[in-house]
From TrEMBL, chain A:
This is Putative DNA modification/repair radical SAM protein. The keyword S-adenosyl-L-methionine applies. GO terms for molecular function: catalytic activity; iron-sulfur cluster binding; metal ion binding. Keywords: Iron, Iron-sulfur, Metal-binding, S-adenosyl-L-methionine. NCBIfam families: rSAM_link_UDG. It comes from the Bacteria. Residues 61-197 form the Radical SAM core domain. InterPro entries: Aldolase_TIM, DNA_rSAM_put, Endo/Exo/Phosphatase_dom_1, rSAM, rSAM_sf, RuvA_2-like. SUPFAM superfamilies: Radical SAM enzymes, RuvA domain 2-like. The keyword S-adenosyl-L-methionine applies. Its cofactor is [4Fe-4S] cluster.
From TrEMBL, chain B:
This is DUF4130 domain-containing protein. It holds the Pfam family DUF4130. Residues 86-253 form the DUF4130 domain. The lineage of its organism: Bacteria, Pseudomonadati, Bacteroidota, Cytophagia, Cytophagales. It comes from Dyadobacter flavalbus.
Length: 418, 256
């Protein structure tokens, strides 16, 4: 009896793992009904796989049967793989028992499309409804929106899920059309927009009536696959920026394409996933969301791709040396935030601490800024007299030679032999 | 330099702050009783914990510090670290001697040290919320033991109480030899004498004590942990940075 459920879990977890969304934060579902679970406040990563990714949710597909044949997807119709499907009860049991043992923060449920969109969505909704109502489960639920499902079903799903998401898959319409002719970005925008409008509407109601129900309290997210099609970083990040703005997304995920297909439209099996590029895109995403950068400042026609050897903030600073040095004892918080080597936490500490006296080198080091990198861009109480005779490429060389970056200094796109 | 010896409790530490003022002490070094090694050449003053003195210092600090800072104070105390005890004493004197708002002076080494230690303790608290793995026993209690770097049980109690409101659970700190037991109503501190079959040397409970379903779910969890990994992205350095090896002992998914 063990064997069948073990096999199903193996197949359906394996098929779901290419969706990189793992967040379990941002909800406000308190355990008020003496049930199981509480999803208030920050998320928790309960474990990490050997690839270094966080395990926060039980991430599974309801089934990997699918009527579509998207070239980039491991569950595509034409792929010769084992297929399986969970029953509603099995998903509920797994979720409850994993949660009780503190293995997970909740459930991430996606599915291949079987029969049609509504049929699939209806099954997904049945599971989350059972968890919330019969099992009194207050853990986190991330539910995939199935494009093309009816608005009634989406509205019902939103009452039980904490987060919903639909993947853009490819950063541009043309890229998507190349690999998944049956899909389009429009199919994604429509439900994103519908759910967003409902979130806003229910928030308004909630400010009037306390008992108005929760609706997707942790918001929506999406994912793009990177490196399967030949988009520039500029195209990728401009798409992301637009989606953040148009649909108030909580997150955009970037997933480096892992070759899983012999399709000639795609990178060949065995080629290295673009991990450095993926990391640089996330750094850019952070700069947009937490550091007050506009995407245009980082990626534009003159500079359509991110550097592999240095991070995008340093790269921006080197292109804008006229804005430096920044005096940490007088500059705006916004400008301190733009200094390479100073993060949000340190920038806040700096503006608080300087009220008590001018800050010196040893204090800045203790506060925790990356001094080696930052020192080229700042002035402080005891900074040495410095003639500004450096140029960008020289400075880059100095910083790179001193850095202990986790990445090699020359990009390497080769499979290691060992 | 005067040497203060206190009993290692929060009341003791706060009493010491009070005594500094009462005795008009100048430079002071504080050490807890268990780390005190009497020295013929150095005189020492033994702090006698007194609730009333401690409460007055606590109230004084509360006037000057916001809620977040009070929590930081408590968290860094739970580090059980000798240097931090000293930082807490000096921090308290600094705060009490200055107008409200001095807690923002991260240029002061004690302010910074406390805020950084509080962060470390907070991280350990968060790790325990993540890495605790319950096993369901035959009598329906969910049991886990841990050996955290700091004394974080008082900090995680509410988290587990809110989350697992419909199941009985026990979290036991093997290092500090006490645990928390939730009986569906309230959380209580408990101390065990371990029987041989429940030896703390084992990283999990033996099968004989467990619910018959326990084996299945721990097996499924291990399977899941394996299946959700992407071998093409293998990055053990990152893996170990997120889960340092000292935590592996009690993580069921890391057992062979």
């Amino acid at each position: 009896m063990f064997e069948r459920i073990r096999e199903k879990l193996e197949i359906l977890a394996d098929a779901a793992k290419y969706d990189v969304s793992c967040s379990s934060s941002g909800s406000n579902r308190k355990n008020t009904n003496k049930g199981l679970g509480d999803s208030e406040g920050s998320g928790i990563c309960h474990s990490y796989t050997e690839d270094g990714r966080c395990v926060s949710l039980l991430k599974i597909l309801l089934t990997n049967h699918c009527i579509y044949d998207c070239a980039f997807c491991v569950s595509r119709k034409s792929n010769d793989i084992k297929r399986a499907a969970f029953t509603v009860e099995e998903v509920v049991e797994l979720t409850m028992n994993f949660y009780r043992r503190n293995y997970i923060e909740g459930l991430f449920l996606s599915s291949g499309i079987f029969k049609n969109a509504d049929y699939t969505m209806e099954r997904l909704v049945r599971i989350v409804k059972k968890l919330r109502i019969e099992e009194r489960f207050n853990g986190y639920i991330h539910l995939k929106t199935i494009p093309g499902a009816s608005e009634e079903l989406l509205k019902e799903a939103g009452l039980y899920a904490d987060r919903m998401s639909i993947n853009l898959e490819m950063p541009t319409e043309s890229g998507l059309k190349l690999l998944a002719p049956e899909k389009s970005h429009e199919d994604v925008k429509k439900p994103l927009d519908f759910i967003q409008k409902n979130i806003v509407q229910l928030k308004d109601e909630k400010s009037l009536i306390k008992s108005a129900p929760k609706f997707v309290p942790a918001g929506q997210s999406t994912q793009m696959v990177i490196g399967a099609t030949p988009e520039t970083d500029k195209e990728i990040m401009h798409t992301a920026s637009n989606f953040y703005k148009d649909f108030s997304l909580k997150r955009v995920y970037y997933s480096g394409y892992i070759p899983i297909s012999t399709d000639t439209r795609l990178p060949i099996i065995g080629s290295q996933p673009p991990l450095i590029r993926e990391n640089r895109l996330y750094q850019t995403d952070w700069l947009m969301r937490f550091y007050g950068f506009d995407v245009q400042e980082i990626l534009n026609d003159a500079h359509p791709n991110l550097d592999a050897d240095i991070d995008p903030k340093l790269s921006w600073a080197l292109r804008n040396l006229d804005q430096f040095p920044v005096d940490v004892n007088t500059a705006d918080y916004k400008m301190i935030l733009r200094v390479p080597g100073i993060g949000v936490g340190s920038a806040k500490k700096i503006v608080q601490a300087r009220k008590f006296g001018r800050l010196h080198q040893n204090q800045l080091k203790k506060i925790g800024i990356a001094f080696k990198k930052a020192r080229h861009f700042i002035r402080y109480a005891d900074s040495p007299l410095q003639l500004r005779d450096f140029d960008a490429s020289h400075l880059k060389g100095v910083i790179l030679s001193e850095s202990t970056s986790k990445y090699l200094k020359t990009p390497q796109n080769q499979l290691s032999l060992f | 330099m005067e040497l203060y010896v206190f009993d290692g409790t929060l009341e003791g530490l706060l009493t010491a702050v009070f005594d500094c003022y009462q005795r008009k002490s100048g430079a002071v070094k504080i050490v807890s009783q268990e780390n005190f090694h009497p020295d013929v050449f150095q005189e020492s003053f033994t702090v006698v914990s007194a609730d009333e003195k401690a409460n007055r210092v606590w109230a004084g600090l509360r006037k000057k510090l916001d809620k977040d800072w009070m929590l930081r104070f408590y968290k860094s105390f739970l580090s059980e670290n000798q240097e931090t005890f000293h930082d807490l004493l000096e921090f308290s004197r600094y705060i009490l001697d200055n107008p409200a708002g001095a807690g923002e002076n991260f240029g002061n080494k004690h302010v910074l040290a406390i805020s950084q230690m509080a962060q470390k303790v907070h991280r350990e608290k968060h790790r325990m919320e993540a890495f605790i793995r319950f096993q369901q026993t035959a009598d329906g209690i969910f049991y886990a033991h841990i050996e955290p770097d700091f004394n974080v049980l008082p900090l995680i109690s509410d988290h587990f109480k809110n989350r697992y409101a419909d199941q009985k659970w026990i979290i036991y700190d093997l290092k500090r030899k006490y645990g928390l037991y939730f009986d569906l109503e309230k959380v209580e501190e408990v101390v065990f004498d371990f029987t041989t079959e429940m030896s703390p040397a084992l990283n999990a409970l033996p099968e004989t004590l467990l619910d018959p379903k326990e084996e299945l779910y721990s097996l499924l969890w291990k399977d899941y942990f394996r299946s959700t990994n992407i071998p093409a992205r293998k990055n053990m350095k990152l893996h170990i940075r997120h889960i340092p090896k000292r935590y592996w002992k009690y993580l069921s998914e890391k057992q062979a």
